[in-house]
Amino acid sequence: MDMFALWLLIAVAVGLGWVIGHHQRLAFSEEHSGSSDSGGEHPLALSYLFEAFDSPTVDSFVEQLEITERSAPLYLAIANYYRKQGDLERSTLIHQKLLGESIIQDKLASQVTFELSQDYMAAGLYDRAESVLTGLLKDDDWHERSLLGLLEIYERERDWLVAREKALTLGSRKNKRINRRAAQYCCELAEAELRRSKRTNARDLAKEALSIDKTCARASLLLARVEVETSNYQAALNVLKQIEHQDASYVVESLDLAQECCTQLDQREKFRRILDYVWERQPSSKVLIKSAEVIAQLESTREATEYLQSKLDEFPSLAGLKVLIELLIPVADPEPKRWIRVVKGVMENILHQEPTYRCENCGFAGHTLHWQCPSCRQWAAVKPLLWT
Ligand SMILES: [Zn+2]
C-alpha cells in the first residue's frame, strides 16, 4: 500500500472514530457534566485507529505527520493512548520528540512536559518525574497540577516528611485540596510516632493536622487515641465530639474509644446516651451491637435480647442477629443450644466474607480502614459500611 493510501485510510479511521467518539462523549458529558480530561484526548476515536492499524503503521504515521499547533493535540492523544495501554516507551518518545520542536516550545511546552512527567510516573521513574514536575512549578497555570504530581511521588515513596514540607511550602494556604493532603501527611507522621510510643510528638502532629484542615476526622481520632493512651479520658471525649461535624461517616470509628473513656471514667450510662444519640442520627450494626452489650451490662441479658429483637424487626442485620444468638446461647436448653451454635458458626463465616469498609470513589472494599484508598489513591474516601 502506498503512503498516500495509507494516510487516507488513517485519516478516515480517525475521522470516523472521532465522529462516533464525539457523539458518545456528548452523551456521556450530559450525564457527567464538568468531567473532562486534559491533553486533547480522543480516546474512543483513537481506539478505532489502533484497532484498524498495528503499532508500526501508527508509528510511521506519527513520524511523517508534520508537527504544528493543530496536529499537536493528535500527537498528545496518541501518546496518552499508548501510555494508557502501558506502552510507555512509545508515549515517552512522542513527548520527547514534541519537546524538541520550536512550535511546541513556544506554545505547548508546559502541557507536553507535564505529560512526559506522567510517562515517568507510570514507568516508576520517580526521580525523573520529580525533576520534570519541579521545573514546571514556576508556570502558574501548571503549578497546582505539578504540585499534586510531586505529592503523588512522595506518597508512593511513603516519604511523609517531604510530602508535608512540600505541601506546606509550595501550596497556597487557601488550597483545600492541598491542605487536606497535608493534614493526612501529618496524620501519617503522627501514627508513626504513636507506634514508637512518642505520644507528645503524635499529639503535636495531630493538632497540626487539625490546624491545617479542621475537617480532618482522622486527626481527631488520632488525637483522641493519644489522650486515651495518656489517661486524659475527658479530653479524648471532647475531641471525639468534633468528628460528627468533620465527617459524620467516621463517627462509628470513634465508638470504641468513647466506650473506653466512659468505662475508665465509670460513666457507662453516659456511653449509653452517646449510643442513643448516634443511633438517632445514623443507625448502624455497630451501634446496635454496642447498645445491646451496654444494656446487658447495665440491666440484664433479657433486656438486651428484647432490645435487639425490637430493633432487628426494623433494621434486619446479620451482625445484630449474631449478637442476639450469642445472648441466647447461655439460656437455651441443651438441644436447641447445639443448633444455635451451628447457626452462629455459619453466620460468622458469612460475616467474615462481608466487607466492612468501601471506597466511595472506586468501590474498593475490604476489612481495613485505609485512609488512602489502595486502589484509586484518594484520601479519606474509604468509609465504614454502616450495616452488615
Ligand atoms: Zn478508591
Automatic annotation (TrEMBL):
Q: Which residues cross the membrane?
A: none
Q: Which Gene3D superfamilies match?
A: Tetratricopeptide repeat domain (1.25.40.10)
Q: Which UniProt keywords apply?
A: Metal-binding
Q: Which residues form the LapB rubredoxin metal binding domain?
A: 357-384
Record's SUPFAM superfamilies? Answer: TPR-like (SSF48452)
Q: Which InterPro entries match?
A: Rubredoxin_2, TPR-like_helical_dom_sf
What name does UniProt use for this protein?
A: Lipopolysaccharide assembly protein LapB
Organism of derivation: Allohahella marinimesophila
